[in-house]
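Render this sequence as a predicted structure.
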Amino acid sequence: MRTRDGDTALAVSDRVAIVAALEREVRPLIKNWHSSRRQYEGRAFKFFESEWAVLVCGGIGAEAARRASEAVIAIYHPSLIISAGLAGALDPTLLVGSVLTPRWVIDAGDGSRTDTGAGAGTLVSIDSVAGPEQKAKLAKAYGAQAVDMEAAAVARGAQVRGVRFTAIKAISDESNFVMPPMKRFVNGNGEFNTSRFVVFALVRPWLWPKMAHLARNASRAARALCESLEQCSRAVGNGEALALKPLVSQGQQ
């Protein structure tokens, strides 16, 4: 359906599930939510709940996102699942803090595409952190505006279980930003080993300015992401349709 301002809308009936990678990406949103730990298929998951939604931080990468999606769907039976988190820009016009609600989510691993039914543009999911050269190749190959590591896995989990899916991503690194080496610090459960990374960075002072820049960008993007998710919460709380803006390019230099 369409809202009065022309944005595509998703009718909301029951609780919404949000799957994020890391808690710090959504901390501004969940700081006052109730938290609990529950088991699913032998794994412990930490869930954050409000009146309108349940959120789980599954970890970094497709496998972690898949497990989290399966758990939240099996336990809470949501009517809609949102892949939420930070993403890298492929489009040079997207600045840090821009929010993308893509119409298409593509898995670069097998080329499969998911139509979210709302929003605009394309998000492509890959299995590693992308630098500027790879971002340029992805933009050309898929016509995508942004890249992440989890959305395609969440989309697949939702599709298999007949749950509606969408994605809301905030840009944390622009198309020309060179990321520090991160993948080696992510374990098999999708957890980021912060202490190991700090030790790695401490003896490489040339990385310090980049790390400070990345931290500022991530914080700005997290705030923008949570503001968008909070708008969803108000819509759901008021019993309204959930309108997804196609693209909000409000990043700041």
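Summary. DSSP finds six helices and 14 strands in the chain. Helices lie at 23-30, 62-76, 132-142, 151-160, 194-202, 208-237.
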